[in-house]
Amino acid sequence: MLRQMGTLNFDRYHAAMGDASYKDVTSVHGKPLSEMIATFYVTQRKLPFAPVLGHERLIRLLVDSQLDRPRLRFLEQDRGGLQRFAKAIEDIQFAGAIRAVRPGTIMFPQQPIADITGKFGLTQAQEIKFEHAFDLPMTTASTAMQFRMAAGDRWLSDFSLRRNGDIERAVDIATYAFIGGFNDTSNMEAAHRLDIPAVGTIAHYWQQAYLEYLTEPEIEPRTGQPKHFEQVAFERWLDANPNGTTLLLDTIDVYLGAVHAAMAATSNDARRKAFKGFRVDSGDLAELGKWCLEFFEANGLHGLRPNLTGDLDVEKLKRIVKEFPEAAGFGIGTKLSSEVKNVAGVIFKASVIDGRPTLKASNSLDKTTLPGTLQVFRGIDAQGNYLADVTGLDDENVEIPDAVIVERLLQPFWENGQHNPIPSIEKQKAFVADQMQRFPDLHNYARRLSDRLAKLRDDLTAQMRADNSGWEKILNLPEEVPEELIQSE
Asked: pTM here?
C-alpha cells in the first residue's frame, strides 16, 4: 500500500522564514541560521485545565510529511521564490527531538506541554503540526471534563455527530470526549472504531409518522375511546424494542407526552418491561423531568431513567443537577463540539536558539513567552495527591513544600523518527479520571514560575528593551509618546 504523501501543512511565513534562513545574507556571526539548533515549546492559553491529548495525531503528521512532486513544484514556483526551502524539505526528513507530557496528563494555561529541538530551518516549520495535533483533542477533553465534574456520576452521552461537519472530526470528538469522561456516543463509526457503547433514542419524527391515526384512530380497549396517535407511536416503538428503550416526550407537549407514554407502557406487560427511561429535549428540563418522574411513579411505572438533552452547557447542567438530582443522564451535542466556550489556543514559541535563551517580550504579560529549556515540576504528597506545579528550567532542582515526590512532567517522546508507545483510549481515560481525584481543586490549583525562570524572563526582557542607540534624538516623536518609553532602561 502506498503511503499517503504529506500536505503543505504550514503557513507561508514558515516557508518564507525557512527559505530565508538558508541564504548567506541571513547568517548570524557567520553561522547559517538554518543550521542553528533551536527549541520551540508548546502550550495552551485559554482552557482552565485540559488533559494533553493528540500525541498520535502528532506522530501521524510528522510521519506523513514528505511532499510529492506537485507540491514541491508549487513551492518552487512561489512568487517570492522558495526554492531553498523546497529543496530542504525534499532532501531532508525532519530528524529532531520532541519531549512531551504523558498522554492524558492534566495541565494548565501557559505550562509547556511539549517541546521540539532541531535545526531552525525545518524545526520552525513544524508549528502547525503541533497546533493541529493538540488543539481539538485538548479542547474537547477539557469540555468533557467540565461536564463530568458538573454531572457527578451521572451518565454522559456524546450526541454531537450532527454538529461536527465531517465524520473524521466527529470520530475525534467522540474519542476525546470519552477520554475526558463521557460514557458512550451516538456516533456509530466512532463506536465501531473505539469499541465503546453506541446509544440513541427515538426521534421526534417517529411520532410524526403516525399522524394518520388522527383521522383513522385505533380504539383503546380499556376505555373504548380512540387512542391518541402519539400513544400508538409509543406502543409500536415499545413493541419494536422489547429489551428496553427510552421514549422521547416533547414532540407535542411534554405533559401530554408523559400521559401517552404511560398509556402505552401500561397497555400490556411486555410494553411495561420495555419502558426503561424517558427523554426530555426542550423546556425547563429540571422542572419537566421532575414532574414526569413523579407522574410515572404515581402511575406504577417505577425505576425509570430520566435523560435530559437540549443545548446543554456546563452551567445549565449544574443547575439541573441541583434542582433535579434524580436526573440519570445527559446527552450533550452542540456545546460539546461546535459552540464551546473556549478553544485551547495551542501556541508554539521559540525558547532557545543557538544555545541562547530567547523569548517574545510583549506589552501584555500573558503574551510574554518563556525562555530556556523548560520543565514542569509537579509536587505529590504522601497520599498521592497533587500539591502544586512549578514551571522552571530543565537543569534546576525544584523543591515544593510538603511534597515527597517532585515529578518532572516533560519526558522524551520522539527521537530520530522513533516515538514512545501511545496508551489505549481506555488507559488514557482511566488516567484522566485518576488525576481528577488527586487534584484538591482544579479551578484553584497552585502553580507558579520558579524564581530562576522568572528572573531569566525579566532580565532578558529588560535587556531586549534597553536601547542606547539614541533613536529618540533622530526620530520625530509624537507628543503623546509616554516619557518612560523614550528612556533607556
From this structure: 0.90
